[in-house]
Write a structure and sequence with these properties.
The chain is an alpha/beta fold. It has 2 domains: 16-180, 3-Layer(aba) Sandwich (Rossmann fold), CATH 3.40.50.720; 188-303, N-(1-d-carboxylethyl)-l-norvaline Dehydrogenase, domain 2, CATH 1.10.1040. 48% of the residues lie in helices and 13% in strands. Helix 4 (86-93) links the parallel strand 4 and strand 5.
Length: 304
């Protein structure tokens, strides 16, 4: 079950949409689209997951699963996608069974995968050559944001296509913003991950310091959380870090994938990211400790 949480949906004309990838993010995102009244066809590499989704979100408009991305995309006004990485994205878009082969002229493909800016530009060009539009639209907010329908979405691509997508995507978002041309959405997500990496490392050091100093860190976090030190990470991860709890949230493996994209892009554009590179290596230490699936706040484990 998705544990999808109730949400008030902004009225939007129902459309035929597809969703490719029913992982921890895609499953509830597709669910919100169905609950908002859209006719949804889903595709997942594991057909059992697609069957479970169809059973959970059975609606009068009869959501269904498709055997291939191409079949899912056939007849859809908008195709949404959320998979693992660049290679996964190419595998569901390109080739004889890929979604692009089934896309109608003037339809829109919206990719919520955190991927490279270069693959976004590559697929945008391929889509344009076939007469439809590709929007790169990575998200922030994690699994909880997907379940609550409160994701933040950063979009790159054609502004007119974005305007068509925006009211539909609000089914699973609290904010969706057009930030520039193709690839800009992915670059904005990289900025997001750079910020998170630095904040989590600072929070880890602060909590570890306070604990060694003998402070009641839950009390201290309550105090400083009302001042300039406040952050989302402090509010949502501070006390679980104090309690040494990490079996939830955004996995270290995923963060290392994202930071790899950041560091590759930095090499291309000449950015200097010394702190980000250092924190990436700290996450490698956590992986070596067996924390591949721990939440990113597990950085504090290195300091204990």
């Amino acid at each position: 079950m998705s544990n999808i949480h109730s949400k008030t949906y902004t009225p939007c004309p129902p459309l035929r949409v597809a969703f490719l990838g029913l992982g921890v993010m895609g499953y509830p995102m597709a669910g919100h689209l169905a609950l908002a009244g859209h006719t949804v066809t889903v595709y997942n590499r594991n057909p059992a997951k697609a069957a479970a989704w169809c059973a959970e979100f059975a609606q009068p408009q009869a959501p269904r699963s498709a055997a291939t991305p191409r079949a899912a995309a056939k007849g859809a006004d908008i195709v949404f996608c959320c998979v693992g990485n660049d290679d996964d994205l190419r595998s569901v878009t390109l080739g004889e069974t890929g979604a692009f082969a089934g896309m109608a002229a003037d339809s829109v493909f919206v990719d919520h995968t955190t991927a490279s800016a270069s693959v976004a530009r590559e697929l945008a060009a391929a889509a344009q050559a076939q007469g439809f539009t590709f929007i790169d639209a990575p998200v922030s907010g994690g699994q909880a944001g997907a379940q609550n329908g409160l994701l933040t979405v950063m979009c790159g691509g054609d502004a007119a296509a974005f305007a068509r997508v925006e009211p539909v995507a609000m089914a699973f978002a609290r904010a969706i913003t057009h930030v520039g041309d193709s690839g800009a959405g992915q670059l904005a997500k990289m900025v997001n991950q750079i910020c998170i990496a630095g904040v989590v490392q600072g929070l880890s050091e602060a909590i570890a310091f306070g604990q060694r100093a003998g402070l009641d860190m839950n009390q201290v976090l309550d105090v400083i959380g009302k001042g300039a030190a406040q952050s989302w990470q402090m509010d949502n991860r501070g006390k679980t870090m104090v309690a040494d709890q990490f079996e939830f949230g955004f996995a270290v493996d995923w963060m290392r994938k994202d930071l790899g994209l950041v560091l590759d892009e930095a090499k291309r554009n000449g950015s200097r990211l010394p702190l980000t590179a250092l924190v990436d290596q700290f996450y490698a230490d956590v992986q070596h400790m067996g924390g591949n699936r721990w939440d990113t706040s597990s950085l504090i484990r290195r300091l204990k």
